[in-house]
């Protein structure tokens, strides 16, 4: 009998690889967004309120200046009338 040799070649096995994906979800992710939106909304409303108060203050200041100017004008008219009356009195007393 003849000696027979049988050789079997096997391809190397692919290594076992496992990919694990872990997703972590924050427990308050949605709540934090809502809170931040509310804080932003409050800040915007507060800014608008302060701006409108400044505008009203400017309008009040302008009104006060206008009123003071009118009072000065009225006082100047009174002084002018008094000067005319005094001049008329002087002219009457001097015989003109």
UniProtKB/TrEMBL annotation:
Q: Region (Disordered): which ranges?
A: 1-25
* Transmembrane helix listed as a keyword: yes
| Superkingdom, taxonomy of origin | Bacteria
Could you list the residue ranges that cross the membrane?
A: 31-51
The protein's UniProt keywords, in alphabetical order, are: Membrane, Transmembrane, Transmembrane helix
What protein name does the entry list?
Uncharacterized protein
Q: Which organism is it from?
A: Novosphingobium lindaniclasticum LE124
């Amino acid at each position: 009998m003849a000696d027979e040799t049988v050789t079997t070649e096997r391809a190397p096995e692919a290594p076992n690889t496992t990919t694990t994906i872990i997703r972590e979800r924050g427990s308050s992710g949605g709540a934090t967004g809502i809170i931040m939106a509310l804080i932003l909304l409050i800040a915007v409303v507060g800014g608008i309120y302060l701006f409108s108060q400044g505008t009203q203050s400017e309008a009040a200041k302008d009104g006060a200046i206008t009123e003071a100017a009118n009072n000065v004008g009225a006082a100047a008219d009174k002084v002018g009338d008094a000067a005319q009356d005094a001049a008329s009195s002087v002219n009457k007393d001097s015989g003109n």
